[in-house]
Design brief:
Length: 167
């Protein structure tokens, strides 16, 4: 199974699985996603508020952070995980038909934004060891350097920032 950095990761006796993955195929999938939905580092990308949009948002984030911006696998994996949490919240809790995804890069920082039409604020709840849900913002709080919500005249933008080391 391939990791985010494009190298093959060990996997038991998965010889058949390993032979199906290639950087060329991965780049083709990434290019198709960008062509279908747009580049969230250039403009906000509208996505339908459906559970399967989390996979699209993860792929777009991975393509931009890892391939376009050339950042490492660790920051990419964290950004992909956190965008998935934000998208899950937008799909589950806002009643929106569409939400927007935007990625921004500044010197030493990246920002990921999810905009939706709800003005309901996300709430960081205490997490217990055996909880099976409600951990999303706990993860965001633990992995992001900063996060917050900007209220808009119609809705809100939930965002997180991650510090990066520029090359």
């Amino acid at each position: 199974m391939a990791g985010l950095d494009g190298r093959e990761q060990p996997r038991g006796g998965g010889r058949a699985t390993a032979s199906r993955w290639s950087p060329t195929v991965e780049d083709e999938h990434a290019q198709k996603v960008l062509e279908l939905f747009g580049d969230p580092s250039q403009a906000e990308v509208p996505l339908p508020s459906r559970p399967e949009s989390a996979a699209t948002a993860r792929r777009l984030t991975q393509v931009v952070v890892l391939r376009h911006w050339g950042l490492g696998a660790a920051i990419t994996e964290d950004a992909v995980l956190l965008v998935s949490e934000f998208v899950g919240n937008a799909v589950r809790h806002t009643g929106a038909r569409v939400f927007g995804l935007r990625l921004r890069r500044r010197p030493r920082w990246i920002r990921v934004e999810v905009r939706d039409p709800s003005r309901g604020l996300p709430c960081l709840m205490p997490v217990q060891e055996l909880d099976i849900s409600g951990r999303g913002l706990f993860l965001v709080d633990a992995l992001a350097d900063r996060w917050g919500v900007d209220l808009l005249p119609r809705g809100k933008t939930t965002w997180f920032d991650m510090r990066i080391t520029d090359r």
